[in-house]
Amino acid sequence: MATLDSKVPSGPLADKWTKHKNEINLVNPANKRNIDIIVVGTGLAGGAAAATLAELGYNVKTFCYQDSPRRAHSIAAQGGINAAKNYQGDGDSPYRLFYDTIKGGDYRSREANVYRLAEESVNIIDQCVAQGVPFAREYGGLLDNRSFGGVLVSRTFYAKGQTGQQLLLGCYAAMNRQINRGKIRPYNRHEMLDLVLVDGKARGIIARDLVTGEIERHSAHAVVLASGGYGNVFYLSTNAMGSNVTAAWRAHRRGAYFANPCFTQIHPTCIPVSGDHQSKLTLMSESLRNDGRIWVPKRKEDAEAIRAGKLKPTQLAEEDRDYYLERRYPAFGNLVPRDVASRAAKERCDAGYGVNKTGEAVYLDFAAAIERYGKEKAYTSGIKDPDKETITKLGKEIIAAKYGNLFQMYEKIVDDNPYDTPMMIYPAVHYTMGGLWVDYNLQTTIPGCYCAGEANFSDHGANRLGASALMQGLADGYFVLPYTIGDYLSDDIRTGPIPTDSEAFDKAEADVRSRLERLLNANGTKSVDYYHKKLGKIMWNKCGMSRNAQGLEEAIEEIAALRKEFYENVRVPGSMDETNPELEKAGRVADFLELGELFAKDALHRNESCGGHFREEYQTPEGEALRDDENFKFVSAWEYKGEPKDAVLHKEDLVFENIELKTRSYK
């Protein structure tokens, strides 16, 4: 079994990135003008990479399936972005951010990459402030911070509950500057459908114009994939409905190894499922866990009364409530990592203490925070003996200033006022830690094919800490990739333009057309959504918050059978040469049907529990994840060999020289 070379530089951890930047090859500014780069995906990672590469002088083409980069799913990130600035003076440092991230990922990530991320985090904030991102500020005018799960410091910078939107607008402005200079050529409403290899190197893509249906060839000296995660393999997730795995999966089929597909994050604070009519779920930011307390009734009869509508949560006395995270994890309380909080919620609901009609919800209550903030505001306003009404009014104003848009969103969706009644939340699929395997330079196993942001596997191990996705995307795009890609492109300064009339492009386009025609010619009776929902139920029930060997074996068989039925009985109306959203969906679901089987295979192979991968057979007596460092301290990187069942496993052994491996504890 092959061992992968991560190309991690030698030397002390804190010096690796600086040493690497000093030693890698550079491209002369005059030569950059002769080099083309394709960037697929224009969220934070892709947009930051495109803007920076164009600023450096490269010729960049960007591709996104949305009508504007402003609609990338990065815009949905709410709570904040981590950076080890230590503005609060509470003991933070790049090393502590590095440590928290490794520990939060349950010791399944690469030390060197994570330390680099922590190092660059401090630069991201300066970059974004310079772009005009309106981060929240405290009374003295300095940037404010709040806490997120899995840490004991405040390092999360935020812009109310719309941090992703503000960061993306800053990134988009940087892109627009380069578009106006002619250094970026944007191809919006285009979807990458294949990667083109010439002499073993990534030299372009085949894309479909989603407006006209035209199949197009685009060449470049390197291709950057920044197309996000694959959470929609579960159908119901917090991802945008269009989020998909196609770009990464097409690269996988061309030779890029897919790493840790089973490492998927379940977010604990989502609005619960309300019925079969739903097509996506809505996230309530983890930042709410700073002030919201999570609880269920202590007695089952109270939970049953609430579910039956006979009892309101506000009628339950404090002593009759079980603040189970505070009870089980006193050191971190409601701010334990996402995987820990999610499993704890599932355990309480499975035991019969759930509080909505389906029994799959817990409360997120702000009453204590409203009272605390209200008293503080009253005292600082000179009201020395405030009554309850005044305290409540002032407290709600403080909460509204911190989280107002999130509360509005909740009330719009649920038709319940969260200032007066506790929010109901339940875990849901959110982020994917797995993705294309990349080395220290963010290059996949295909030379010239790079991968950034959520689409790669590199920084989060088996569980991502909150507010780290924006950090990774911007670090990759602004500060890592622009350095490392030059080392590869320094060999291309005399290559000249890559022609698109070659045999490699002919074959790739023929493969794309054949695949689309197969979907259009099935002439079945079931819609694409019918199969996507069926896949999602298999994934959630057997590969979701907990897994076991029997369920995973069944999932592998069921997904393979579903894929066979899909190609025989799916109905895709319309044609290839027109606007055809059903054809777009069909191609994406076809890829999900392959990924889902590999996901289950990876989960079945990993006989341990770690982070978001919870195998029921491997847990402590207290129900916590039980790792097996002796046998599974590696990255699983799968090589495509046709059917997912034939995928070949390659291992990258994880070496921990700076952190002691130990069982995670948040107690």
UniProtKB/TrEMBL annotation:
Protein's cellular compartments: Cell membrane
NCBIfam families: PRK07573.1 (NF005749), sdhA_Bsu (TIGR01811)
Stretches assigned to the FAD-dependent oxidoreductase 2 FAD-binding domain: 36-470
Lineage of source species: Bacteria, Pseudomonadati, Bacteroidota, Flavobacteriia, Flavobacteriales
Keyword Transcription regulation among UniProt keywords: no
Pfam families: FAD_binding_2 (PF00890), Succ_DH_flav_C (PF02910)
Ranges of residues in domain Fumarate reductase/succinate dehydrogenase flavoprotein-like C-terminal: 532-666
UniProt cofactor(s): FAD
Main localization (coarse): membrane
Active-site residues, record numbering mapped to chain: R338
Record EC number: 1.3.5.1
Name of the featured protein: succinate dehydrogenase
Molecular function as annotated in GO: electron transfer activity; flavin adenine dinucleotide binding; succinate dehydrogenase (quinone) activity
BP terms from Gene Ontology: anaerobic respiration
Domain of life: Bacteria
Membrane topology: Peripheral membrane protein
Keywords, alphabetical: Cell membrane, Electron transport, FAD, Flavoprotein, Membrane, Oxidoreductase, Transport
Family membership: Belongs to the FAD-dependent oxidoreductase 2 family. FRD/SDH subfamily.
GO cellular component: plasma membrane
Catalytic activity field: a quinone + succinate = fumarate + a quinol
